[in-house]
């Protein structure tokens, strides 16, 4: 089953994944494809199988900084979908790949029906928040070479050699 290529979906018991699978489709995404814009509603939730999604804070002067990366270990859009909120970042595909996708309205319904699924999504959001906080701390205290090493290690973890 292609959906099991995502760590979060793979952690679901077979019966839970079986209940969610009919609502999922598999998509390919290209480098540079935008999944969400800052302060806009999130309409889809992505569970990557491969590739890397980057969450980028856009700065007033035109610059930008990546604050988090999502690969096959996570999801983008789940917390926004559950709370009917907007994206806090510009979200773009950094490395092309594939993902299981579900409509935001549908994931809300499924999470309400399946508390174990909701719990898994919330645990991942805590992990992602910790990653973003770590990135902020590193950007404040480490030099560019150290930050590059951290970035390369995360890229390797998500995309491989």
Give me a quick take on this structure.
The chain has 6 helices and 7 strands; from the N terminus they run ααβββββαββααα. It is an alpha+beta fold. It has one domain (2-159): Sandwich (Jelly Rolls).
How would you explain this protein's 3D organization?
The chain is of the alpha+beta class and 161 residues long. The protein has one domain (2-159): Jelly Rolls, CATH 2.60.120.10. The protein is built from six helices and seven strands, in the order ααβββββαββααα. The protein has helices spanning 7-10, 14-20, 78-83, 104-113, 115-141, 144-159; strands at 25-29, 34-36, 44-48, 52-58, 64-70, 90-95, 97-103. The strands form two sheets. A four-stranded antiparallel beta sheet has the order 2-6-4-5. Strands 1-7-3 form a three-stranded antiparallel beta sheet. Strand 4 and strand 5 form a beta hairpin. The chain is globular, with a radius of gyration of 16 Å. The two termini are 25 Å apart. The mean pLDDT is 91.
